[in-house]
Amino acid sequence: MKKTFTLMGISTTLVLTIMAGVLSGVQAPSAIAKEKETSYLIAFKGKDLPNDFEEIIEEAGGEVERAIEEVGIVSATSNEPDFLDKILENNEIQVAEEELEIFLEEDPGGADGQPITDVPEPDWDDPDQNYHDLQWDIHKVTNHFKSHEISKGNHNTVVGVIDTGLDFDHPDLKDNADEAGSRTFVPGTSDAWDENGHGTHVAGSIAANGKVLGVGPNLTVRAYRVFGATGGAYQSWITDALVAAANDEVDVVNMSIGGWRWMAQNYGEKGDSASMVAYHRAVQYAIQKGVTVVVSAGNDSKNLGSLHDMQQYWKDTYGLDIKGPSRVVPAQIPGVITVSSSNEWSDDLIAFYSNYGNPIDVAGPGGDNGPVYDALYREDPKGNYLDKRDFKYRALSTWPTYLPPYFTSNLTGYAWLHGTSMAAPKVAGIAAVIKSEHPDYSPSQVAALIRKTAEDLGKNGQDKLFGAGEANIYNALTD
């Protein structure tokens, strides 16, 4: 079945809105517009919902929209102005808050860096035409495709891609994309087809097998669609998708999602926000089910391990005085593999946009705009150097064939993107190939092997930029 869609907002990183009505712009998209009926995220105490949870919410003036029983999380709506106060009076509620929405962060566009026009359009009838030489990122993590000679993964090993969906008819993905097993968590939709492009690009880095190749060309990818045509997703949709993927017994989950949250003292009542609780519980649920969860570090150029860096970020960007710790989710959720973004041209510097710090486990090649842009940006991050961008330093992967070309090139079906969103799926692919060879490995064993066999870039040993190094599946297979 072929889909036809209109091109909507695109992202190379998915960013969480922080506070309704406060933050706006590219780095922190606008929060959910206030309407008569407001959506709330509610975390009950413990991980099981009480039998009367619907009555509790109805008595407070709300209506249940989505219940994720495995982790004790509920999304509810209400048009009562005192609903939140009433629900928090109940001693079975741990925390509740107005539910925030996640949007796709737009890549700065317009008349800037020149699109790539010297690469021929795909000839789907020519099996000998390919773009393998342009895949510097896959070359790096596979040792120039040598890992494919040892293992390409297998169809029994499944990577759940929690994202914008997939182009299930893409010639490079159709043999590996599990449309029947895919799901959508976006209300009002009935399928997991990709209306944005982000999810298809991510999936190609994992399991493409055609004119571009993924880390594991024989792996299965399954879409858990949480982003609609305009890029929006509520926290409960993401939580529901992660729990569903775990129940479906996928082997690996890729979450190229990032966003700023702060905890307790700075957001509502004492204790974690409901979104933080939902993330914690869902990730731990997945890990206990044997799922390796791989996430992107985020694209804010910030040290995730520095309280001062976090506080200064809020002060400089939004004029907010954040007194306590802040967190990036899911990058700083315990148990996940957190991936920073490396580039093509340096063994000492990660991509200019990539977050870094103690939470980084490994790096993956997510691309950038090339060394000229990088030098100018590092000298003055506020300068305008868009015309110095060289898009071939970004990561080439699959793009929905029914969407217009992405602005970095004129190609149909393929696109150059960059971001930690593009770095994480390389590591997810590595984790899945490891699982295909060692199906008995636990998530902690998979993560340990990835760290152990990473290429030690940057400072010797563990460092704040690359973590244990740049992940490498050839090393993992030959260890």
CATH superfamily of the largest domain: Peptidase S8/S53 domain
- Number of helical elements: 12
Largest sheet: 7 strands, parallel
CATH top level of the largest domain is Alpha Beta
Q: State which percent range the strand residues make up.
A: 15-25%
- Kindly state the number of beta strands: 18
User: What value does the average pLDDT take?
Assistant: 88
Detail the poorly predicted runs. 1-13, 15-35, 262-270
Would you tell me the structural class of the helices and strands? alpha/beta
- The main sheet orders its strands as 8-9-7-11-13-15-16
Topology-level CATH name of the largest domain: Rossmann fold
Distance between the termini: 42 Å
Radius of gyration: 21 Å
Silhouette: globular
Report the helical percentage: 10-25%
Q: Give the SSE order as H and E letters.
A: EEHEEHEEHHEEHEEHEEHEHEEEHEEHHH
Tag the structure with descriptive keywords.
single chain, Alpha-Beta Plaits, Rossmann fold, five-stranded mixed beta sheet, 18 strands, 25% helix, 18% strand, globular
Provide an overview of this structure.
The protein has 479 residues and is α/β, with parallel strands linked by helices. The protein has two domains: 38-99, Peptidase S8 propeptide/proteinase inhibitor I9 (Alpha-Beta Plaits); 118-478, Peptidase S8/S53 domain (Rossmann fold, 3-Layer(aba) Sandwich), CATH 3.40.50.200. Helices cover 25% and strands 18% of the residues. The protein has twelve helices and 18 strands. It has helices spanning 53-59, 83-88, 136-142, 146-150, 198-207, 235-247, 274-288, 307-318, 371-379, 420-437, 443-452, 473-478, and strands at 13-16, 38-44, 63-68, 73-78, 93-98, 101-105, 158-163, 183-184, 220-225, 233-234, 252-255, 257-262, 292-296, 326-328, 337-342, 362-365, 395-398, 414-417. It has a seven-stranded parallel sheet, with helices on both faces. It has a five-stranded mixed sheet with strand order 10-6-1-12-14. The protein has a four-stranded antiparallel sheet with strand order 3-4-2-5, with helices on both faces. Strand 8, helix 5 and strand 9 form a beta-alpha-beta unit. The two termini are 42 Å apart.
